[in-house]
Amino acid sequence: MFLLPYLLKIKKVLFIVSLFCSFSVMTGCWDQRELNTLALVTASSFDLDANNNVIATVQIFTPQGTSSSGGSGGSGGSSGTGAQGSNLVISGKGSTISDAVNNIETRVSRHLFRGQNAVIVFGHDFAKKRLKEGLDYAARFYEIKERTLIYVAKDHGVDLLQYRPNIERNSADVMEYLTEKNANLGMSLKDVILMRLGPNKPVILPIIGVKQLRVKGNPEHMFLTLGSAIFANDRLVGTIDHHDTYGQRLIYNEFNQTVFPLHLKGHSGQVSLNIQSVKTATHSAIKDGKWIITVKVSGKGIVFENTTNQSLFKVKTEHKIEKEVNKRLRSIIKHSVKQTQHMNSDVMNFHGVFYREHPDEYNKVSHNWEDIYPRIDVKVNGHINVYDPGMIE
Amino acid sequence: MGLFKKNKKEQKPKQQEQQQQHENVMNGEEVNSTSSDQISRSLKINKQRILDVYSDCSDLITRSFSIGKQSKDNAFLLYIEGTSNSEELDKVVLKPLLSISEWDHSLEKVIESISVGQLKQLTTYEDIYNQLSNGNPILILDQIPVALSFGLTAWVTRGIEDPTSEVVVRGPREGFVESLRINTSLIRKRLRTPQLKIKSKVMGEYSKTQIAIAYLDGVCDPGLLKEVENRLNKIKLEGVLESGVLEEYLQDNRYSPFTQLLSTERPDTLCGNLLEGRVGILVEGTPFCLVLPTTFTAFIQAAEDYSQGFYITTLLRILRFLFLGIALLGPSFYIAVMTFHQEMVPTTLLLTIAQTREQVPFPALFEALLMEVTFEALREAGVRLPKQVGSAVSIVGALVIGQAAIQAGLVSPTMVIVVASTGIASFMIPHYNAAITIRMLRFPVMFISSFLGFLGLIMAVIVIIIHLCSLRSFGVPYLEPYAPFKKSGFKDSIIRAPTWKQKNRPHFTGNVWNKQRKE
């Protein structure tokens, strides 16, 4: 009996020893991945070939360990591969996306790590036919972040990944930063999934493409945002141009800033007005069975350029400019709404506004929103003020 | 195992005996112990006995001389060379005694002629040995069973200098020295009240080290004082050469890596703590005194905090707390991110790190261990090396942890930054032995986070916090102002409220009647 405390002590020690023993056996089980064993995927794209097979493409950052990786910042990265390191674009074919990705994985010595994947590009054909699959894969696969940006390519997604930009390290960076600029449409995976919850599964995705330009006879590739692709029920129902996309951005209250060249009535020349700090309030009303959306746009206008002979220090001229810009915004919003109503895809989130302000009425018609949406009237109140006419007359 | 247990039981009575003896020694100054031998009337016997005990002690100086002309060699003076002021001894003891012409073996006459302030009458041999060891010269007279000791100690000590381990920009520059009496005088200089009590104690079977327990009567919790004395009485040691030895015995949790007693070599720090109701333990022969109870907040409290403005102090304390976290978790965070959570790093940074790490052949854990161990080695070498070669270490160190290591392809530049910032962070902790704890705990956390990533890192942090919560320093919860939350204590924790706002003494002062600070 007097040995009991000792036995208890031995038991404790044995427990700890056995714990450590089992740890040492389990070393193969951990999901540890050294950075050196990863292929860092910066962007990926999905295309379809003629036989309806998925072609998955990944843009991999290839770290070229420069011999003296100190201050010089890798001057060894020559042969036009950008300032640091270079990119590798690999494609694989398969019947499904994961099959195609697996096909790539068998040919790469490292694990394809998509935790840093910033952009997913759907090829035009892929988006047309298999958008749902693409979104499902992106949302389901645990490594892909919700913040990943989704783009639709003008034709092939591969072209975008292969594009070598002049300023940025790779095309993924370009696509990532483009959305932060101006009033460009940027849709993250999370945005798309949330938007797709609406009636008829409306989705709007930016279209992007590479175009060859000739500057002084030298061919140069340029990135272009080319408007947006509109989806309804996971089918591509149409495209709207870059200018009309502003309407969607305005209604979503995510309009950043841009410059509008304005003609003043009865004067030659133009006034270029930069509008910024734009705030939009969207409200709904149901009057005599008519569904009405009121969009109130307010913001600041700064004159960047004046080629008219008018003095901007006159309040009258300012009023003229304000009138013009508000007219312009009204036409943009109305036009883009009309187009989406034509395609019958509520990417303007009008259903959300009605649900918020008239839940009872909305719930009655929510199942046949496709009948209501094209008949919604839009009224726009523009309240852009010319804030800064400039320092000179 | 059973046998061991029995043996222990048999040993117990012996130990008790020893303890009794020990206690007698402690009370030795006041004499009247029956177990020690009384001094004999015969000088010859006394002399013989003392010389026997001190055989082979070449530093014992003895002198036989005669008082009066009646008899020869009736007095015997002895002291240990270097411990007593021999000049003074000649002047105030020897000279007057030699000038006595008539002596009738009366003690009074001798005492009258000696002009020494501190004079003690000893009756046992034990006392004689103690007084001799303390540096007091002893005079033994024929026909008198009493020895006289004179307070003429003159130990060689260092002058008062800057405290090297706790440097301040603003604040007193006096530090404790190796002499207990000078140290107590430094406290007395700052707290000139009879309420400052300095209890004396002798510890160590052979070293007979003087120990002083300093506290402010009426501020310090009597229960705490009792507990301190209780614990000190239980300690049985052959020698107490440094306060660190006592620290190991006095701690509530002796296996905890966290120091539960603050050690300081600054008299102002000690006095500040005494005013808060803490107890200080000073040990002869070391400039480091112990302050107790101590809480976790001591990790971020510096001596200077109270002389600087409260804004800057608060900011500095937050900074120290932040860097405490970096010192503990910096490399582990790096390992976890680099091996488990690559998606957490901003893309541009990750690509740069990937590029620089490409040529490093080791896994992140090994890379971090390599650098951290090297850093610790350099630090240790820097402490131990003689000053003349100290600069060599810093030059070599700069090469090892720096560009050369990167160029050799051993580590990545990011790792160098992590190690360097961790190193700096660990030196930001104002108290050296607290910093060592953090530096040591870093390594297990690194291992765990290399197995389990952030999960392991958080687990390790939780384990550490649970341990801290369970710790107590003399009954005071280690995390006191935070958990359990004490509003008044919080005013001097991670933030420092202005002094006029800190009206209450810390919680552990105990007595409600003395909660408020006097104004």
From TrEMBL, chain A:
| Any one Gene Ontology cellular component term annotated for this protein | membrane
Q: Which InterPro entries match?
A: GerAC_N (IPR057336), Spore_GerAC-like (IPR008844), Spore_GerAC-like_C (IPR046953), Spore_GerAC_C_sf (IPR038501)
Q: What is its main location?
A: membrane
Q: Residues in domain Spore germination GerAC-like C-terminal?
A: 227-390
Q: Does the keyword Magnesium apply?
A: no
Q: How does it sit in the membrane?
A: Lipid-anchor
Give one Pfam family, short name only.
Answer: Spore_GerAC_N
Q: Which segments constitute the Spore germination protein N-terminal domain?
A: 31-208
In the record, biological process GO terms are: spore germination
State where the protein is found.
Membrane
Q: Which UniProt keywords apply?
A: Germination, Lipoprotein, Membrane, Palmitate, Signal
Instruction: Tell me the protein family, please.
Output: Belongs to the GerABKC lipoprotein family.
Q: What is this protein called?
A: Ger(X)C family spore germination protein
Query: Where does this protein come from, organism-wise?
Result: Terrilactibacillus tamarindi
Q: What is the lineage of its organism?
A: Bacteria, Bacillati, Bacillota, Bacilli, Bacillales
Automatic annotation (TrEMBL), chain B:
Q: Does the keyword Membrane apply?
A: yes
Q: Which Pfam families match?
A: GerA
Organism listed in the record: Terrilactibacillus tamarindi
Q: What is this protein called?
A: Spore germination protein
Does this UniProt record's set of keywords contain Plastid?
Answer: no
State the compartments where it is located: Cell membrane; Membrane
Lineage top rank: taxon = Bacteria
Per the record, membrane topology reads: Multi-pass membrane protein
Q: Which family does it belong to?
A: Belongs to the GerABKA family.
Which of UniProt's keywords are assigned here? Membrane, Transmembrane, Transmembrane helix
Q: Give the residue spans that cross the bilayer.
A: 321-340, 390-409, 415-433, 445-468
GO CC terms of this entry: plasma membrane
UniProt main location, coarse: membrane
Region annotation (Disordered) ranges: 1-37
Gene Ontology BP annotations: spore germination
PANTHER family according to UniProt: LEUCINE ZIPPER PROTEIN 4 (PTHR22550:SF5), SPORE GERMINATION PROTEIN (PTHR22550)
